[in-house]
Amino acid sequence: MNFPAELKYTKDHEWIRVEGDVAFVGITEFAQRELGDIVYVDINTVGSEVAEGDVFGTVEAVKTVSDLFMPVTGTILEVNAALDANPEMVNQSPYGDGWMVKIALDPALAEALLSADDYKALIGA
Questions:
Q1: Cys-Cys with 60: which of 40, 81, 83, 95 at CB 3.0–4.6 Å?
Q2: Rounded Cα–Cα distance for residues 71 and 43 (Å)
Q3: For residue 63, pLDDT beyond 90
Q4: Tens of pLDDT along 101-121?
Q5: Cα separations (Å) of 96 from 25, 92, 112?
Q6: CATH class of domain segment(s) 8-105
Q7: Contact, 24 vs 16, CB < 8 A?
Q8: How many whole angstroms separate alpha carbon 86 and alpha carbon 89?
Q9: Where are the domains of the chain?
Q10: Residue 12 phi, psi dihedral angles, 5° rounding
Q11: Cβ(119)–Cβ(9) under 8 Å?
């Protein structure tokens, strides 16, 4: 399993890649494996400020629907529109083309999240 060191992680299996005062958010490789084949991503919170730990959307797999939790408080700037036609990109490239939202944030907030090593320990990898 892949755990990119440049990312931060949450106990809810989301990742965040901070680039200045914006960040990309998605679900981890572990999470997408647990969910199975993803068939739909539903995020309708563009323009909204979402608090850390609050639900910003859902991801639907063949057998289940799972909430997506915001890793840090931020304003959702953009949803990955490519997921509408190709939700399976979350399975194929969870840390790349399968990102879910782009947010505006205070970059310092991400410092409190898990490192790759901490996340690996959390899931027992």
A1: 40
A2: 15
A3: no
A4: 999 999 999 999 999 999 999
A5: 10, 9, 23
A6: mainly beta
A7: yes
A8: 6
A9: 8-105
A10: -90, 5
A11: yes
